[in-house]
Write a structure and sequence with these properties.
The structure is a single chain. By secondary structure, this protein is mainly alpha-helical. Helix content is 75%, strand content 0%. It is built from nine helices and no strands. It has helices spanning 7-24, 34-41, 45-51, 55-76, 83-96, 98-106, 111-128, 135-158, 165-182. The model has no long low-confidence stretch (mean pLDDT 85).
Length: 184
């Protein structure tokens, strides 16, 4: 359902996306009705159906938007010269987008998104790590590093960001660097 992307359309879509994220804080997506979503966004149901087939299509667009923003953000960070700065900037981005990260990355109903996010993280690791691993082991090592980092980040989010960006980036960097270099 492609419509001209004018200001009114962008505003309507933003209202719908924000409303879905708000509702998903307390409900699983399959329990959110279009009527409820539209009432929360204060738009007409017929307007919703101009742009989306159902709430799952809206969630897919939210996920795609977030993944594209993460990719764009990763490209903007100057990482070759300072790996810790790269990690710190990524963590700041996650913290600034905590509401959506909590919903997209850590809810079981979003496994396809989580898989896509992990794939992006692994691809980024492969591009930026300066180690060479045996081909048959490389994917295992990248997955180990990625899942470990995501687990630490999840704990940080669950603890409501009690560690500073510097503390967390140092912790992740040191643990990951030690694990990566010890197998090289």
């Amino acid at each position: 359902m492609v419509k001209k992307d004018n200001q009114r359309v962008r505003l309507t879509k933003t209202l719908l996306k924000t409303s879905l994220i708000d509702l998903m804080q307390n409900k699983q997506i399959h329990k959110i009705t279009i009527k409820e979503l539209c009432a929360h966004a204060e738009i007409n149901r017929s307007t919703f159906y101009l742009y989306y087939e159902d709430q799952f299509a809206l969630l897919n667009e939210i996920e795609d938007d977030f993944l594209n923003h993460v990719k764009t953000h990763l490209i903007k960070i100057e990482h070759p010269s300072n790996d810790r700065n790269f990690l710190k900037e990524l963590l700041a981005y996650i913290k600034n987008n905590a509401q959506i990260v909590r919903i997209l990355l850590f809810r079981l109903e979003n496994l396809s998104f989580q898989t896509s996010f992990i794939s992006i993280a692994i691809d980024t690791l492969k591009l930026n790590l300066k180690y060479e691993y045996p081909n048959h082991l490389a994917d295992y090592i990248y997955r180990y590093l990625t899942m470990g980092c995501l687990s630490i980040i999840k704990k940080w989010i669950e603890d409501d960001f009690t560690l500073s960006l510097d503390e967390l980036s140092d912790l992740i960097f040191q643990l990951s660097d030690h694990a990566a270099s010890s197998y090289n």
